[in-house]
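Inverse folding, one chain.
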């Protein structure tokens, strides 16, 4: 079996328009799309030498993704992992039943 010369692993470079970060655990380059003129995706932008001025930190609501430290306040307002407000008609434990037998009214027994 001959390997294709156009595959990223054979050439040692990522595919065109893809992130240049090499994921050691998966033994391949990151496959996320990069912005025009960038070398790394948003997740691996910290690996870029030219962006050392801006620091990325873990999101406090969901540590599965990162955010720029200077944009944290803006991110917290729109992060999908934030707790969403309950609707007006929502009542906590409405169908849970009685919590204690002593709460049974005598008229119903």
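Residues assigned per position:
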């Amino acid at each position: 079996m001959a390997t294709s010369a156009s595959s990223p692993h054979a050439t040692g470079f990522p595919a065109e328009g893809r992130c240049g970060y090499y994921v050691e655990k998966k033994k391949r380059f990151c496959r996320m799309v990069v912005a025009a003129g960038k070398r790394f995706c948003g997740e691996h932008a910290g690996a870029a030498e030219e962006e050392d001025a801006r620091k990325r930190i873990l999101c406090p609501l969901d540590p599965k993704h990162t955010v720029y430290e200077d944009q944290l306040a803006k991110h917290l307002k729109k992060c999908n992992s934030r707790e969403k407000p309950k609707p007006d008609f929502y009542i906590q434990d409405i169908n849970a039943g009685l919590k204690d037998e002593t709460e049974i009214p005598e008229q119903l027994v």
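Residues 54-81 form one domain. The radius of gyration is 25 Å.
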